[in-house]
Design a protein that fits this description.
single chain, 228 residues, alpha+beta, four-stranded mixed beta sheet, 4 strands, globular
Length: 228
């Protein structure tokens, strides 16, 4: 188990027994939440379902400001608050770049969604402040000068590595899902199902049939209503 997963599990263990009122907080689902935050939220939900731990999802316009670290999603479990749940680095960088460094996506999708709960002029101020923060981070890690095609190629290389590691197995460590499966599912499934200004990112994933089957397997096993 990774250090991130160990820290996550130890945080959960501190709240034993797991309460029925455990709540995951994320931005508004229909109008506000962005690709990277949706991926992280879905990954956490998948992992908790794999562990048989119930969690309620609460959508709040100010979820980012409710989080003690400013990171979303975060979970309130008893008297514990768990945030910064460990995304897959390469996917997260790529999605942040596309959301905020690609001018078309930022203008048509990211700024309008991010600012949707707020009235003008606060909406504009917060959206441009967020874009400036992300672009500053991208510059600091050497991604600010990348082209969109270079980012797509990074995603392709990541998908290739994941596809080779998965092979013909149902999960990355054979028959039982782990936190890695939850994280990969969250990021891949969100890219496949989220509207962007270009479908190129999703098309890169669709070229790996075992990753598509993997996503469908987890969706059917842990998210589809078996009672209907």
């Amino acid at each position: 188990m990774s250090l991130a997963a160990e820290a996550f599990v130890s945080q959960m263990a501190a709240a034993e027994p797991w309460p029925e009122t455990a709540t995951l907080y994320q931005p508004l689902k229909e109008d506000q939440i962005l690709l990277s935050d949706c991926a992280s939220s879905l990954a956490v939900q998948a992992y908790l379902r794999m562990c048989g731990l119930p969690v309620q999802v609460a959508c709040r316009a100010n979820a980012e400001y409710m989080s003690p670290s400013g990171k979303i999603p975060f979970i309130h479990v008893g008297n514990q608050v768990v945030s910064e749940l460990g995304p897959i680095v390469q996917f997260t960088k790529a999605k942040l770049y596309i959301q905020w460094c690609d001018d078309a996506t930022a203008a048509e999708i990211s700024r309008p969604r991010y600012s949707s709960p707020y009235s003008w002029p606060l909406s504009n101020i917060l959206a441009y402040q967020k874009q400036w923060e992300v672009r500053r981070k991208m510059n600091a890690i050497g991604w600010g000068g990348k082209t969109l095609e270079q980012v797509y190629e990074d995603v392709s290389q990541c998908c290739q590595a994941l596809s080779q590691r998965l092979g013909t197995q149902p999960y990355f460590f054979n028959k039982q899902p782990t936190e890695l499966d939850a994280l990969v599912f969250g990021h891949l499934f969100t890219i496949l199902t989220t509207r962007l200004t270009s479908t190129e990112l999703a098309e890169r994933i669709k070229s790996y049939s075992n990753l598509l089957s993997f996503c469908r397997r987890i969706e059917q096993t842990y998210f589809e209503d078996k009672s209907s």
